[in-house]
Amino acid sequence: MDFSIRDANVEDCKDVARMNLDLAAYEKIPEQVTITHKDLEQDGFSKNPFFQCLIAEVPQQHKSKDGYTSIGFALYFYSYCAWRGRSIYLEGLYVMPEFRGQGVGKALLSKVAQRGLAAGCNMLNFIVMHANQSSVDFYMRQGGSDLTSDVGYHYMAFKEDALQQLAQT
Fold first, then answer.
1. For the range 163-168, what are the long-range contacts, defined as Cβ-Cβ under 8 Å and sequence gap of 24 or more?
2. Which one, 15, 118, 137, 156, has least CB within 10 Å?
3. Bridge partners of residue 84, in order along the sequence
4. Which of the residues are catalytic?
């Protein structure tokens, strides 16, 4: 299949927001999405962006059944591990269902890995929902390791009110 991977631009934020909602629906948690394309525009394309994003797109003649040419994305940012140094964090990777199994996800993942290596990173981190076995299998086939079973880490967070409360102590 003919597709390309490119850096996202501010005009892509509506498509990223659409696919982000599709990803959440696929994972059966659409109510968890609270950001809009305006948030993506501000947070990804301001003077100090919080994330970077790649877009997978097809030529117009291969557009989706709903008329989209942007068919996937990878949203990532750089981070730091106190034990291992520079790392890159893949926050989201999504390919529209009708384009899966054609190398698009692997190409997005590979491009994120290339960006990480170019920045001196030695690790690419991400999370996968336990119930999303097809994605777990995909990442394992690419050489990923499951730190939950290998090391026993728990992924933790302080959300909204808990974050506010923590900040006030």
1. none
2. 156
3. none
4. 139
Task: Count the neighbouring beta carbons within 10 Å of the beta carbon of residue 74.
Answer: 26
Cα–Cα distance for residue pair 155/50, rounded to 1 Å = 20
Report the alpha-carbon distance of residue 161 to residue 6 in Å, rounded: 37
CA separation for the pair 126, 82 (Å, rounded): 17
Q: Return per-residue pLDDT of the chain as tens, 169 residues.
A: 899 999 999 999 999 999 999 999 988 899 999 999 999 999 999 999 999 999 999 999 999 999 999 999 999 999 999 999 999 999 999 999 999 999 999 999 999 999 999 999 999 999 998 888 999 999 999 999 888 888 888 788 898 899 999 999 8
Distance (Å, rounded) from C-alpha 9 to C-alpha 98? 24
CB 138 within 8 A of CB 72: no
Provide DSSP, 76-137: EEEEEETTTEEEEEEEEEEE-GGGTTSSHHHHHHHHHHHHHHHTT---EE----TT-HHHHH
Tokens representing 23 are 């990803």
